[in-house]
Amino acid sequence: MESEDDMHDANDIESLDDDFYSGETEDAPLDYYSDDDADDYFDDAERIESRRPEQNFTILKESDIRLRQEDDVARVATVLSISRVSASLLLRHHNWSVSRVHDTWFADEERVRKAVGLLEKPIVQHPNARELTCGICFENYPRARIEMASCGHPYCISCWEGYISTSINDGPGCLMLRCPDPTCGAAIGQDMINLLVSDEDKQKYARYLLRSYIEDNKKSKWCPAPGCEYAVTFDAGSAGNYDVSCFCSYGFCWNCTEEAHRPVDCGTVAKWILKNSAESENMNWILANSKPCPKCKRPIEKNQGCMHMTCTPPCKFEFCWLCVGAWSDHGERTGGFYACNRYEAAKQEGVYDDTERRREMAKNSLERYTHYYERWASNQSSRQKALADLQQMQTVHIEKLSDIQCQPESQLKFITEAWLQIIECRRVLKWTYAYGFYLPEHEHAKKQFFEYLQGLFFNLNIIINFFGDSSVNNTQL
């Protein structure tokens, strides 16, 4: 007798045959359709396209970062009618936000100048002076050997070089460099840097300035992958979607910079990572699988053998594993080596109830955590293998398959896309175990629905892996 599903399948096949012979198949040319049908076709295509998530991030190379930085400096310099060096100092002070620079400048220009160190006129004047005294070494120098910032405080070139070079070698703090005079807040711009220091120090300063454009900007971050030098700018887009895929093939969450973990929220990921690295699970294991020596309190694990336990040197105390009493009080009358009458009697009286309950709870908690962690780690390992397989496919097998099938490699892109889908499936399935671990036990309906969805996703992953492995085998043939 046919099942209901078989009957549905048969009906579906009949309807497909009817569509085929009536010329209304999916692959039919548009000439087969009426104008209304064609309009509906394009409307559906537009709706499908509109449902695709828009990319709300931009990957930037170093040249892109430098171009954007120079463009922002030029915009501020043009609008405020100031030099590019002053515009750069302003932007650096306002975390490279052009809008903030404009708002604060036009609200109170004098206050902004004072905060940044952009002086309109020198504090110290030197009219017609042929020689000046350096404010650091107190030696007299000709005017040509003296340099001054916008404040007018005079310092010799040698002292300037030492002061700026030391600041640059100390780190990115050199971007906030001020006049050496302790009472002066005049800013030292890139023009002074380029004039006075070596080429190596100039490159370091320029590097710090370039990195500050990303690190001080709230809308941009460096890719957290080891060795990656790409940056990412993030724009407001799909609510709750913080997944970013860098050019280096590393995917991460913009919000917490951990590995991409959608649909699990950042809070759950943070708790899971902390739990994996914390010592609490070690203590749970010790509590669940060991007992303290009655004399020295050192944890002792029993993995086989009888109930006669001997603590490690220098303690060497002998005790019973069950009742934790001295073994000298035990013997044939207490149950021998594999039982303990004292323990059984005390247990019936409820003496060990709290201790045993605590050990049982620790054991159950440890087993539950192990269950989820092993599957989380297994999917992580499978994902890493899929990444390695993808690399091998792109570098070795795709060329062989192209020769065997007599097709250009551009026609075999679907294999790479399928492999990327395997990697994505492994990523999502991995994080479902972190989600399941923190799912409250009392929410039975939610837990059952989660397990149902997880099962569907797991089956889909098996199917995708099957076809992925078949592709590898066919390629190797």
Automatic annotation (TrEMBL):
<feature type="domain" description="RING-type">
    <location>
        <begin position="130"/>
        <end position="344"/>
    </location>
</feature>
<dbReference type="InterPro" id="IPR048962">
    <property type="entry name" value="ARIH1-like_UBL"/>
</dbReference>
<comment type="pathway">
    <text>Protein modification; protein ubiquitination.</text>
</comment>
<feature type="region of interest" description="Disordered">
    <location>
        <begin position="1"/>
        <end position="39"/>
    </location>
</feature>
<dbReference type="InterPro" id="IPR044066">
    <property type="entry name" value="TRIAD_supradom"/>
</dbReference>
<keyword id="KW-0808">Transferase</keyword>
<dbReference type="Pfam" id="PF22191">
    <property type="entry name" value="IBR_1"/>
</dbReference>
<dbReference type="Pfam" id="PF01485">
    <property type="entry name" value="IBR"/>
</dbReference>
<protein>
    <recommendedName>
        <fullName>RBR-type E3 ubiquitin transferase</fullName>
        <ecNumber>2.3.2.31</ecNumber>
    </recommendedName>
</protein>
<keyword id="KW-0479">Metal-binding</keyword>
<keyword id="KW-0862">Zinc</keyword>
<dbReference type="GO" id="GO:0061630">
    <property type="term" value="F:ubiquitin protein ligase activity"/>
</dbReference>
<dbReference type="Pfam" id="PF21235">
    <property type="entry name" value="UBA_ARI1"/>
</dbReference>
<keyword id="KW-0833">Ubl conjugation pathway</keyword>
<comment type="function">
    <text>Might act as an E3 ubiquitin-protein ligase, or as part of E3 complex, which accepts ubiquitin from specific E2 ubiquitin-conjugating enzymes and then transfers it to substrates.</text>
</comment>
<dbReference type="InterPro" id="IPR013083">
    <property type="entry name" value="Znf_RING/FYVE/PHD"/>
</dbReference>
<dbReference type="GO" id="GO:0008270">
    <property type="term" value="F:zinc ion binding"/>
</dbReference>
<keyword id="KW-0863">Zinc-finger</keyword>
<keyword id="KW-0677">Repeat</keyword>
<comment type="similarity">
    <text>Belongs to the RBR family. Ariadne subfamily.</text>
</comment>
<dbReference type="InterPro" id="IPR031127">
    <property type="entry name" value="E3_UB_ligase_RBR"/>
</dbReference>
<feature type="domain" description="RING-type">
    <location>
        <begin position="134"/>
        <end position="178"/>
    </location>
</feature>
<dbReference type="InterPro" id="IPR001841">
    <property type="entry name" value="Znf_RING"/>
</dbReference>
<dbReference type="GO" id="GO:0016567">
    <property type="term" value="P:protein ubiquitination"/>
</dbReference>
<dbReference type="InterPro" id="IPR002867">
    <property type="entry name" value="IBR_dom"/>
</dbReference>
